[in-house]
Amino acid sequence: MTRNPFTPRVERPRDSLAAGSFFLLLWAASLSIPPSGVLHLLDIAADTGDSGFVLAAAGSLVLLNTARAVPMYLGWFMGGEALARAFPEKGKVMAWLVPLTAIPVSYYFLSLFSGPVKIHFGTPAILGIFSILALHFLTREVPGWGNRALALALLIFSFQWLDIVPLLTPYGFGWGEISLSVKEMAVLLGGGAVWILNGAGLVLFLSVFAGALVTTELLVSFGLRLRNALRLREQERQIAVLREEAMAARSLRELQQLVHDLKRPLTAVTGLTDVLSADPAMNGAAPHLERIAAAASTMNTMISEILYANVR
Fold it and tell me: By the 8 A CB rule, do 119 and 110 touch?
């Protein structure tokens, strides 16, 4: 049976679990990406004294951190969704608890096995976790995990820009070794490099964060409109079915009335045939009368089958 494309697709636990597993595998693969590009740009900045290479290194670091963070956040986000659907009685608790606990634990184990370059669980990571909890509320009407993943990825990408802002370092932003190296290089170069990082980081954070909020609002509006459109279409379909059933019932009543009206003259024909058959003067017409009686009996059976459904 072909599925109606206008029928909302019900997400099953295994769908969310498969999506979460895919993102976690993608996250595991992203951990093998070396920060050599960022370090190379820092070396060029040190050799040339050009603060533009510091900004390029900061941008490369943001992209690298986003490529590592987004799959992990999405993976645990989808894992929580899968458990929420698998255990409806504790759905809300599981959807919130899984990412809230699994992401810090993941950062902790990464810090133990990350090698010479330590991965820091800083304020942007905490903001990312709270963004997941907010998305559970904001995107509850958004159809499909792909749309929610887009909104979450934009929020995480915006938070990563705060790591390169030297002004926010005392507040827990950018305590990772490479982030600190980028900001220390800006201090060493002087000449406004620190203010360039501050300005670029804050402007890009605000721009991307605003874009994430607008995207989330658009997705929520789209989800609500789609759901209303589907609900309206379903109501129209039900009304059409009821209308067809009413027309069919009316046609059946009219047909039964017509057949019932035919039964009266047919009864008269049958009675007159019996009277003529009993008249001795009509012996010559006996074969014709028998044919009339047989035809009348057949018509009576057909009328009874139409009037009474249990007659066969």
Answer: yes
Cα separation, 74 vs 215, in Å, equals 17
- CA 154 – CA 81 distance, rounded (Å): 19
8 Å CB contact between 162 and 124: yes
Q: Report the run of H or E that residue 235 belongs to, with start and end.
A: helix 193-278
- Per-residue pLDDT reduced to its tens digit, 18-45: 777 888 888 888 777 888 899 999 999 9
Residues written for the chain: 312
Nearest to 66 by CA among 156, 169, 181: 156
- Measured CA to CA in angstroms, residue 275 lies from 83, 84, 262, 272, 292 at distances of 84, 82, 20, 5, 12
Distance CA 31, CA 110 (A): 9
Q: Which residues contact 217 (CB under 8 A, 6 or more apart)?
A: none
**Residue 183 backbone class (left: φ over 0; alpha: ψ -120 to 50; beta: rest):** alpha
pTM attached to this predicted model = 0.65
Contacts of 174 (CB under 8 A, 6+ apart): 122, 162, 163, 164, 165, 166, 168, 180, 182, 183
